[in-house]
Amino acid sequence: MAETKSLKSKFYINLFLFGFVISLIFFIKFWPTPKVDRSLPISDLQIKNIKSIGMLRKNRAEIKMRKSGETWHITSPVTARVSEFQIDRVLEIAEARSNYSTSQFDRISFGLNQPEIIVTINSQKFIFGNINTVTNEQYLETDGKLYLVATHLGYSVPDEPMKLLSRKLLSSDEIPQVISFKSWEVLQKNTGAWRVKGVIPKTHNMDISADSFNHWVKGWEMTSSLSTEFYQGALSGIKAIIETSSGKTIEFNIIKNDRGYLFVRLDEMIGYQLGNDAGKRLLDPYEIVASQA
User: Diameter of the chain by CA atoms?
Assistant: First the structure.
């Protein structure tokens, strides 16, 4: 009897040890381990220190851009503000990483002797070469080294300035302090409140509250256009002048068309196309009152 109990005890001990070993194997095999990023940065550039970008595509004029304050501007071949979304896409190049790097390579073999794209960020050149069809990555040369990078970095480099244009009427650092039309203007007091000089044509039988004026001015700061175009036509229609908190003066000629209103910014000679409702709200504070009623 004692011998039987001893055998049973050994059996259960062995069964427990077997289960423990199996559990330990599964624990080691399937326990999630932290992923280690073994990729290498292709540059030491920091976004906050980048002030200039040049983009050159084969058989195209080089597009040059420079940062002023918090706003990027195209400086050549035209002058215009740059879309924040588009500049962020280009700046991805400076922060790119690669799993492949070598300093021993033949530039001709990798399509680097006559590249389709050269991007210069500050003074560092990024030369885009052939696509590796096996990994679907693109060869890129910078600072004497060859890397493989994601193909979207090359695709994000525009081939014409039009694709870079900001659609906002005003940049983030162009804050209105005075908005003037032919017979009236709205000015900001030292207290931050807005007052009217002249008489606003009354298009709705309502009063304009301080809150409505704030919404109306914010509309000028925040509104984005449906499309943008370099404007070369005659200047006609309504004139609006904005004086900013930094002392800058910005003039618009606003032309009614079949799509709504074209706001032509004269310092850029770029037309910002707004729909009918959006255009009317910027021209008439009473439209804000009516929309809130």
Answer: 114
pTM of the entire predicted model: 0.78
CB 240 within 8 A of CB 278: no
- Domain positions in the chain: 40-164, 176-292
Burial class (CB in 10 A: 0-12, 13-18, 19+), 90: buried
Distance of CA 60 to CAs 57, 156, 291, Å? 5, 16, 47
d(CA 23, CA 182): 83
Three-class SS state of 49: helix
Residue pair 236/217 in contact (Cβ under 8 Å)? The answer is no
Q: Which helix (H) or strand (E) holds 127?
A: strand 124-132
| pLDDT the model gives residue 53 | 97
| Grouped pLDDT means (10 residues each) for the chain, 293 residues | 55 59 57 57 95 94 94 93 94 95 92 95 97 94 96 92 94 94 91 89 82 92 94 91 95 96 95 96 90 70
What phi and psi values does residue 114 have, to the nearest 5 degrees? -130, 70
d(CA 222, CA 10): 79
- Dist. CA 184–CA 196, nearest whole Å: 7
Distances (CA, A) of 132 to 109, 110, 160: 11, 9, 26
| Distance (Å, whole) CA 231 – CA 150 | 36
Q: What does the pLDDT read at residue 23?
A: 63
- Amino acid 33: pLDDT: 47
Residues 6+ apart with CB under 8 A from 67: 50, 51, 52, 73
